[in-house]
Specification:
The chain is an alpha/beta fold. It contains 16 helices and 15 strands. The strands form three sheets. It has a seven-stranded mixed β-sheet with strand order 4-10-9-8-7-5-6, sandwiched between helices. Strands 1-2-3-13 form a four-stranded mixed β-sheet. A four-stranded antiparallel β-sheet has the order 11-12-15-14, covered by helices on one side. A hairpin with a 6-residue loop joins strand 11 and strand 12. The longest helix is centred in the last third of the chain and has 23 residues. 45% of the residues are buried. One of its GO terms (molecular function) is serine C-palmitoyltransferase activity. This is serine C-palmitoyltransferase.
């Protein structure tokens, strides 16, 4: 009876968050001025004002967003299969091109098998709870993206965070978990380390060799989210494993969206046959979502074919990434800006070295730079976060995406435009 009244008191005191969060004036203004593209998006995109601008805001890493061969194949698939499947994979939503895409992904990455999902965001947020349940242990990098955070949350596992890309801190956490289990004589559970190949919120590249050493020493399974590294890193774009010359089978699960470098949609998980087959009944976003439209599956296959037949694209992307890093660091010199991202990363973040403490003010300041760039013929975007749901919110930033389709002159130009826009914004702030 006492227990009942204690629970009832907690229920009476609990005030749930409103379903619709209150928006600030700045957020309302943002919704009203959503950027709109007319026609095809690509390396150059035309906005509603009719002007064509260089697009450094899209994840068009290989520059194949408007590849003619892909469009032709997609049109053929549209005429043969129709617009959509209108059913999940297990309910007559599976098409022959879906199986072909899964085989193509596995062969490209060098894994036993792969499974495709119809949405990129829900892919990783479904894979995590398909394997890690209540009572299991997840050790995750505190810099992981929002989709990973949601998957971790849904799993209801015991969560431990380690400092972003800090292998010494990861080892400290693994030792603490091991010591705690021995002290409390806890039973063995499933254990997972979750990281990104290239972190979308920082542009950092994970230390895969050290991660594998630690996961083998402490008996963990390793999940690597590679949305920003598959089709980017390595001599043939096979991702973080090729970048470090390590067999992909050393990673338990490789998860990525197909909407970035492959210029399609949906996501995939690659690994052993057992790993992939388990998800066909336990991956909720796979089991209960309509299957990927055939034309998008075909587009992804064409994206992989491009990667396999054009290795020079990855060399060009790597050169552009290095040039962008050098140009941005040079442009930020003398300004209170910092550049997050490594030379081999396809994305960079321009952040304030000393945030004001008022997030809206900082976002508004960075938006001035974005607006200045748009006037000067460059499309940029601020990184967007769901602040009231982010577990570990990042500082506001301008995100710059690199593509193999740009020239060195294009890359240097965008850095100079950011520099000029920042100077103008800082001058306005002082007035």
């Amino acid at each position: 009876m006492i227990w009942y009244f204690e629970i009832q008191d907690l229920i009476d005191e609990w005030e749930p968050e409103p379903l619709v969060p209150v928006l600030t004036d700045f957020q309302k203004q943002e919704l009203e001025r959503t950027p709109i593209i007319i026609g095809q998006a690509g390396l150059k995109s035309k906005a509603v004002d009719g002007r064509e601008r260089l697009n450094f805001s899209s994840f068009n890493f290989l520059g194949i967003m408007n590849q003619e061969s892909t469009k032709e194949k997609a049109i053929e698939a549209l005429r043969k299969y129709g617009v959509g499947t209108c059913g999940p994979p297990g309910f007559y939503g599976t098409l022959d091109v879906h199986l072909e895409l899964e085989e193509t992904i596995a062969k490209f990455l060098g894994t036993e098998a792969a499974i495709i999902y119809s949405q990129g965001f829900s892919c990783i947020s479904s894979v995590i709870p398909a394997f890690s349940k209540r009572g299991d242990i997840i050790v995750a990098d505190e810099g992981v993206n929002f989709a990973i955070q949601k998957g971790i949350q849904i799993s209801r596992s015991h969560i431990r965070w380690f400092k972003h890309n800090d292998m010494e801190d990861l080892e400290r956490v693994l030792k603490e978990v091991q010591a705690e289990r021995k002290k409390k004589k806890l039973p063995l559970t499933r254990q997972f380390i979750i990281v990104e190949g290239v972190y979308s919120n920082s542009g950092s590249i994970c230390n895969l060799p050290r991660l594998l050493e630690l996961k083998n020493e402490y008996k963990y399974r390793l999940m690597v989210e590679e949305s920003m590294s598959v089709g980017v890193l390595g001599a043939n774009g096979r991702g973080i494993s090729e970048h470090f010359n390590i067999p992909a089978c050393e990673i338990d699960m490789i998860i990525a969206t197909m909407s970035n470098a492959l210029a399609s949609s949906g996501g995939f998980c690659a690994g052993s046959k057992e790993i992939c087959e388990h998800q066909r009944l336990s991956g909720l976003a796979y089991t209960f979502s309509a299957a990927l439209p055939a034309m998008l599956a075909v587009a992804a296959i064409e994206g992989i074919k491009f990667a396999e037949s054009n290795p020079q694209a990855f060399n060009q992307l790597a050169q552009n990434s290095k040039s962008m890093h050098t140009a941005l660091v040079k442009a930020a010199n003398g300004l209170p800006l910092r550049i997050d991202g490594e030379p081999g990363s396809p994305i960079f973040h321009v952040r304030l070295t000393a945030p004001s403490g008022n997030r809206d003010d900082d976002e508004r300041f960075l938006q001035e730079i974005v607006d200045w760039a748009a006037k000067d013929g460059i499309l940029l975007t601020r990184a967007k976060y769901v602040i009231n749901q982010e577990l570990l919110p990042n500082d506001p930033s301008i995100r710059v995406s690199v593509s193999a389709g740009f020239t060195k002159r294009d890359v240097e130009r965008v850095a100079n435009v950011i520099r000029d826009g920042a100077r103008k914004a800082f001058k306005n702030r002082r007035l």
